[in-house]
């Protein structure tokens, strides 16, 4: 049973404070967990409690969240069985009592929820993926490797936030990561040759000052070929424009960073349709803004049989929004971020709903991360076959990839690496 719950303020990969929770059990087991933080956050995400005290960290301190763990949450967890994850998460939700977890803070609550899971796994002497996913958990995810950063994640002229490699045609996770890393290096050489910056953005992808968004796709195809790989069949492309970050009040889209002008929802979908024909794109996330439900339904009807349409800000890992999306056929896949909803149990409920609908899901990091590799184990536990965790660069991104390498090695011949994108897409 739980004998000790503690928390502290640490830094995330952007140098902003975040919460780390430590839990100890009667048998001497100790476990900790650290909470990530987004920049292009969805409007309906669970609330990250910040101190708003301007004298410390520009108001971004998390001392109140830390105090909530130590003073409010710890006393109610004493003596509880950490294997009762659902019961403990329910208790945390009730203790907070607000719909957005704003009283105790979703950062405080998620830290505890993740640390409880890790402590229980260790008490059972199980790796976290096997504890959360059971003995059948053996599918490694296809990584979405973010190699060009724009939008709110970089100070360049790209409106679109993420241009990712999808090495789905590799025989194993290990080889997929190699395809991704080799293409990343080839891309660096391509950028250098053109006199473009090879400095990186928040998720470790390059942040070149390209004059238009489409140029990023062309550069990626060039890099895949330069790495000696086949665009489409071996390495495809995924996009996360994160369109909520350039949506306008009137429901349109303003490509302000690139100077690309104003576009309607229909014009955005037409643009993606053109790109899908020109480049080996297999997945499109948040191609429209978080309130553009009708636009999403139109987009999914038009493009959903050719690419995976993923909702991130649209759903914020919340079953209420995902249920609406299923009814309205708004997308055909969901991005899963534990800190958007605030507990491990609710994260798993969101995935269960996707499964029921026959939808795909992608387990994801945040742009502000820590060295905690919880989501690597979570992706294998849930077995959806996809993870999004940044470039093969920056320690907080590589921590997840390295953990997946470890898991694949541990599973040995039982490990499965299978493309969720069906027959390999070939380059147009
Ligand atoms: P965020 O970005 O963590 O800054 O929200 C990630 C995403 O939009 O998928
Ligand atoms: Zn996103």
From TrEMBL:
Residues 2-132 form the Enolase N-terminal domain. Residues 137-425 form the Enolase C-terminal TIM barrel domain. Its main location: cytoplasm. CDD domains: enolase. One of its GO terms (molecular function) is phosphopyruvate hydratase activity. Catalyzes the reversible conversion of 2-phosphoglycerate (2-PG) into phosphoenolpyruvate (PEP). It is essential for the degradation of carbohydrates via glycolysis. This is Enolase. It comes from Muricoccus vinaceus. The gene is eno.
